Amino acid sequence: MPTIEFENVSKIYDEDTVALDDVSFTIDEGEFVILLGPSGAGKSTMLRVLNGLTQPTEGSVRIGGKELQGNRSEVGMVFQEHYLIESKTAFGNALSGALSRNGLVRSALGLHADADKMTALEALQTVGLLDEAGQRAESMSGGQKQRVGIARALVQNPEIVLADEPVASLDPKAARDVMRYLKKAATEQDLTTITSLHQVNIAREFGDRFLGIRDGEVIFDGDADDLTMDEMDRIYYGETKSGETIPTGAASGEVGETDAEADAATDGGGRA
């Protein structure tokens, strides 16, 4: 049975800004799916709908056969801006993933169950940071912080992990490290994972399946062998006329602002 089902999903802002346009697809359990597309194509909106942060204007979204309603504890989120508490240790930040089980007051008082503490340590080990468990976030590199963000999502014990441009601000080596650990966690725990990326070259290294999104529509659905340069041109630049010069940014991953930045524009009336 598919883990995720999008059926004729549309999202319209301010009555005339179409962020998602009649989108339908299914994602099976354990798939590692990467969303590709230009800024403002709809990738972040799709993730926000999946996380229950945004309600679709039309259509339905089902997870495990059940209609998605509001934020779901079985959906973990990894953000571009990792949103760690800088004064806390890697362990403390990872442990905050147990908030939904522990409650705000108990978490604030540091009253965590032993099982949650063990889960946090195991999550840090999964992302290669067990030896840095006692290190404060403020002294960690950007790549390490993002890996702590992954560990925090894992502590939530999710069935699905969503990642919105998780490596956008990282150098290529750190970006590959983050993606490698994200893929490792997904494989070891059989997690259905969906991440949006702008770095196409990195995406091709780690993705099992790719959804190409343009103008709020899914115009490509295939694996790395199907993701040819012609398809990337179609995803990022649309249909082209014979002989027209095509920008080469998509091949190098340099494709402009992140979708997180585009989301800010959406809140003010732009496309997400």
UniProtKB/TrEMBL annotation:
Location of the region described as Disordered in the Swiss-Prot/TrEMBL record: 240-272
Keywords of this entry: ATP-binding, Cell membrane, Membrane, Nucleotide-binding, Translocase, Transport
Transmembrane segments: none
SUPFAM superfamilies assigned: P-loop containing nucleoside triphosphate hydrolases (SSF52540)
InterPro entries, per the entry: AAA+_ATPase, ABC_transporter-like_ATP-bd, ABC_transporter-like_CS, ABC_transpr_PhnC, MetN_ABC_transporter-like, P-loop_NTPase
Gene Ontology annotations for the cellular component aspect, listed alphabetically: membrane
Any one GO molecular-function label of the UniProt entry: ABC-type phosphonate transporter activity
Domain ABC transporter: 4-240
Gene3D superfamilies referenced in this protein's UniProt entry, alphabetically: P-loop containing nucleotide triphosphate hydrolases
Pfam families: ABC_tran
Name this protein carries in UniProt: Phosphonate transport system ATP-binding protein
Organism the protein comes from: Halorubrum sodomense
